[in-house]
Amino acid sequence: MENLRLADFGFVEGINEIIAITRNADGTWNTAPIGVMVEDSSSTSAKARLYRSHTRENVKREGIMYANVVWDAEIFAIASFDDLGESFFESLNPPVLRNSAGWCKFRAMLKGAYANLELLDGEILRREIRTVNRGFNAVIEALVHATRHVILKDEKMRKELLEKILYYREIAEKCGGEKEKKAFKVIMDRLR
């Protein structure tokens, strides 16, 4: 694909939630939801904040990060806490998740807490018209709080995060479908 732009893959200005895929030292794939920050969707440049994680270690070692554009709340929930096994992939080279709308390959260079991303390659696999689903969005917001809840030690902060997670669970239960409800089961099971 020539003259790639972030917009071709659905990226818009702001933070775009994707499933990042990086190669572990043992050759397996690491998967994690990551927010890709875009200032100009007509460009090929973006950045992502990478906390201490396998994703960050892999980017530092390999300099490559793949992004899969998916709308499956359950995949986001599982990938927030564990690597997705091979059964979740429709291709391992390049790494493409089942039902992904598309994938991108980025050159990723660490600079402080961020990785500067430069779009190298990608493919649009499915073109779908999608509406905004409040249940899906609630799962994504809850996952931000849930991943922090898991790593924080401060009980007061953990309690506040749990209250937010429960708030978003109500929205997902009311506005989401089966996948959103399954995603919340994954979240709540992990928090127990």
What do you see in this structure?
- There is one protein chain.
- The chain has 192 residues and is an alpha+beta fold.
- 37% of the residues lie in helices and 31% in strands.
- The strands form two sheets. A six-stranded antiparallel barrel has the order 1-2-3-8-7-4. A two-stranded antiparallel sheet has the order 5-6.
SSE map:
Layout lengths: L13 E10 L5 E10 L6 E5 L4 H9 L1 E6 L3 H9 L7 E4 L2 E3 L4 E10 L2 E11 L9 H18 L3 H21 L2 H14 L1
Antiparallel strand pairs: 1-2, 1-4, 2-3, 3-8, 4-7, 5-6, 7-8
Helix pairs in contact: 2-3, 2-5, 3-4, 3-5
Unreliable residue stretches: none
For the biggest β-sheet, the strand order reads: 1-2-3-8-7-4
The CATH homology group name of the largest domain: Electron Transport, Fmn-binding Protein, Chain A
What is the terminal-to-terminal distance?
Answer: 45 Å
Assembly level: single chain
Percent helix: 25-40%
Q: Tell me the series of helices and strands, N- to C-terminal.
A: EEEHEHEEEEHHH
Key attributes of the depicted protein:
8 strands; six-stranded antiparallel β-barrel; alpha+beta; globular; Methane Monooxygenase Hydroxylase, Chain G, domain 1; 37% helix; 192 residues; Pnp Oxidase, Chain A
